[in-house]
Amino acid sequence: IWGGGALVFAVKEISENLHILPNITLGFQIYNSHFSASWTYLASMELLSTQKKFIPNYKCDSINNAVAVIGGPNSNVCLHMAPILDLYKIPQVTYGSAPVLHYRSQADFVQQMFPKSTYQYNGILHLLLHFRWRWIGVLYLDDDNGERFVQNVLPFFSERGICFDFIQRLPRQGFTGELQKLIEEGLATYKTIMRNTSNVLLIHGEIQTMPILRLLIAGSVYLDMPSKPDDKVWIMMAQMDFTSFAFQGRWSIDFLHGTISLAVHLKEVLGFREFLQTRNPISEKEDGFIQSFWENVFECFFSSPTSENPSERTCTGFEKLESLPGSLFEMKMTAHSYSMYNAVYAIAHALHHIHLLKFKQKIMVKRLRKSIDLNQYHWQLHHLLRKVSFNNSAGEKISFDQSGERIAGFDIINWITFPNQSFLKAKVGKIDPYASSKKEMRQLHTQPISLCNNNCLQGFYKRKKEGKPFCCYDCLPCPKGKISTQKDMDDCVQCLEGQFPNHAKDGCLLKKITYLSYREPLGFGLTIFALCLFLITTLMLVIFIKHQGTPIVKANNRNLTYALLISLMLSFLCALLFIGQPRKLTCLLRQSAFGIIFTFAVSCVLAKTIIVVLAFKATKPDSQMRKCMRKPLAISIVFVCSFVQLIICIMWLIITPPFPDFDMHSLAEEILLECNEGSMVMFYCVLSFMSFLALLSFTVAFFARNLPDTFNEAKFITFSMLMFCSVWLTFVPTYLSAKGKYILAVEIFSILASSAGLLICMFLPKSYIILIKPELNNRDQLIRIKN
């Protein structure tokens, strides 16, 4: 009745409008298709008959002939009408869902008030993605449109990240004998819906789907099955307007609460509500539908001579339509009735355009003054319908694209039900495919979650579950050094350089710049250790200078002894260059200074060893060996060895000098400010040359191990070189495996340990004799020991 009301209201407005079809009266006939193919074919043939007789394909006169047909409310009705209307070139304007026509000639005569279906499907997809509903169930009507939806649209949804808990077929309404089968299959489908875990159900159907759903809901209550939970959201297509069988009028509609549906965009038409209030069986006696409708919704009967039941409630005809609950009758214009309203106006504007063309051409002037036989030109009407464009009484522009589909968008409706069986359809958004920018969608007050499993929180990433749909996954924590800043990330990402993951691995923190400083325990301890060794060496130097006239000092080449002690003092001080903030000067000096100074120290040891060997080889007073033992030999050995190391260091500083640098990767949470050695090859060349001198000293000392003990330092030199080689052989793998400040600590310890080894092995025994056992430090004692 709401569709018929919109039709009658539109015709009434056009008849009263002097600017559209002046002096021309539009008429209409309404036929019931009963959602059946046979009834639709019958109604189509009756449209082609005249004189109130079923005589198809016979034209008795030029009046009361159909020039256009408004078909609906579903696609099947339009599809069944199209072959017959195409034969007579009668255009059809559909106000329901768009049919899929198999022949181009039929499509040319079909005009659709329903926008492109792709716009609706894209809108639903954006709606699902907007609310992050990726785990959904699908219920579709068992017809051709439903099958096309499953085969063509659902794969597109899947490509965009939507996966399906279930895809169930809803049985369609058939003959009365099939009602039991429909209920059985429907209840089985309803059990599946309630049993699954998805909280969102997408329903694809037609206008007749709603009564079937209401039947299933009522049956589930009767069979004590679980009802629809409040946290489950149903999403319905635009073609599924709210309809009911007459006997369902008082049934509960609570299941619709929170439902989201799409509807063809509409605007409120002024005067429609007032028009409906004036319609009743008394004022509209010629309307054959309104009396039957009145008896069904008001549960009464109009008195007749054949009525035999006095208990039946009698209809007065003045009952108020606005007193009916919304589940029975809506006083507002719905999306379907709005489409029918615009369809009538579209036909009227096309007819008006034909009228103007004929008038301008001044053909058949006399006949034009009497009346216009628009029926002669209905074959031209479909061309004009494609081009028609007008503003309706609500101020909305109505036009069509080249395919004959209305250019419009969809409204997103949120259903709110009330205990008195009324409902409110609140518009919460709009799908406008022609908008230049995306419009924000107002969210629902309570947004349900529909996922196969809980979201992977920040700090976790997704891993697909084997044998499950792609939206079912496990959540694993990000590996070390990576983060995830959003939910449901497919993989974790690295922090930017100079940052590190926080404890939750959901964000990055700035790394702190650090270096081995004097204030931290490690740096402070190494500094104290180096200074103590420096002071001990200084004390030994003072002791040796003070006792320089004693035999034990003179017997071991005191000049080389003094030089060796001074070089060891400087070696201990070189360790301090590795502590503190690296600067350009300290980076240039620390490796080269230590390399030259320690090479000088090892050269002194080598010279002392060679002098001791030569001293025992020169047994004769006039021997050539005695001439070689003079000072120039020792000086030459020290000078040559130190000069070679000096050349290596100079080449290093010229070619690839060390420089201050930031090490971003060695430490997870800190940036290490360090000295970049420039060339590790040159660094290992310096170490290799020192190791060569140490090995040479060890070899010479080993051959001199059997000389008399009093003058023989070979054993002490052997032990000191063994310690030196052990320290630096251990240094290399430790240096390569250590990270951060511990690399410097390893190198400082190696410098101090190798220098301290020389100090202890070479000078501690002599210091013991000088300070503790002075009676051993005299010439007679040395000679006696020798004899």
Structure description:
It is a single chain. The protein has 787 residues and is an alpha/beta fold. It is built from 23 helices and 21 strands. The strands form 7 sheets. The chain has a 7-stranded mixed sheet, sandwiched between helices. The protein has a 3-stranded parallel sheet with strand order 1-2-3, sandwiched between helices. The chain starts with a helix and ends with a helix. It is a multi-pass membrane protein.
* Average predicted local confidence, pLDDT: 82
How far is it from the N-terminal to the C-terminal residue, by CA? 141 Å
List the uncertain runs.
365-370, 437-446
Number of helical elements: 23
Number of strands: 21
Number of separate domains? 4
What's the CATH class label of the largest domain?
Mainly Alpha
Brief rundown of the structure:
The chain is of the alpha/beta class. 46% of the residues lie in helices and 12% in strands. The protein has a 7-stranded mixed beta sheet with strand order 5-4-6-7-8-11-12, sandwiched between helices. A 3-stranded parallel beta sheet has the order 1-2-3, sandwiched between helices. Strands 19-21-20 form a 3-stranded mixed beta sheet.
